[in-house]
Amino acid sequence: MSLDILDQFHDPGLCKSVLERLRATLDGHPLRFMEVCGTHTVAIFRSGLRSILPKEIVHLTGPGCPVCVTHESEVNAFLDLAENPKVILATFGDLMRVPGSKGRSLKIAQADGARVSVVYSPPDALKIAADNPDSMVVFLGVGFETTAPAVAATMHMAKAQGITNFRVLSFHKYVPPAVAALLADPETDIDGFILPGHASVITGVGPYLAAASSYGKSAAVAGFEPLDILQALLFLAERKRDGRPEVVNLYRRVVRDEGNAKARAMLEATFTTVDALWRGIGSIPGSGLEINDEFAAFDAKREFGITITECPPLPGCKCGDVLKGKLVPNMCPLFGKACTPAKPVGPCMVSTEGSCAAYFKYQVD
Question: Domain limits at 266?
Fold first, then answer.
């Protein structure tokens, strides 16, 4: 694809200027960057930006797709719960086709008679509970600190309204510890990170400062327009050239450096941090959000005695290595053959934010 694609951008002249500065800054030296957020992954491919980046840039996708990092054992717990005839599962639609360790999914369970309802917000699940007082409605809490405050607020609503047949199965995950795990992994080879714009609205930049101070890597919170991403890449390239690692917020029109104190207060009032399993990465300390004792009455784990343990990964699926930036999707032997969006083997091919789905949709070589 030629540079004519710049004409499609909101400010083609400025994008071209930043691209030229980026090329001059690199001066033939490589830059391996990882965008952590799945929305960034889609934005990079959909805009055509990846096709015009300097050849020195190696683009790696990270563990910022909520569905992709949901562990096989967690999906198995969803499927086990779906077999309970007294339970209605409420879930966001992108979880429906995620395979468990035996290849089954919620979509298959629904076809077999399980009561699974797709909702668009946690309060929708609460309404289902109010409308079905003889059933236990369990909302599948999957996502990052971006969506967890709304789930927490819904539990507060349930408590205030006296709705006693509503539960949450919380497998929410917290992004900063995952970035820290990547930084600490001696096998990763990443020069800098584009940090998630949405999650950083909640956290701010503080949790990521150790990337520079402890690991000597630069990172930038960025928006999702092509110019946002180009400016973040220029920042990473300049800091690498100058040997001056730094973490910066380049998305100030949306993200405050300190984040959203009210949303964090809601999380702290409802959840406690625990170790959590991430698909392909394993257990990451302090990266999970578990319902605290005050809201134990709404905790599906306690209600149904659910425990989570490691289980074997899906045979042949390299989604974990993709999430860690150790290989690109089309290097997986299943990619485009046994694993396609129509028949996904792993979660990175299921979600619209998954890197494998993006590679397949945009036909990346």
Answer: 68-174+259-304
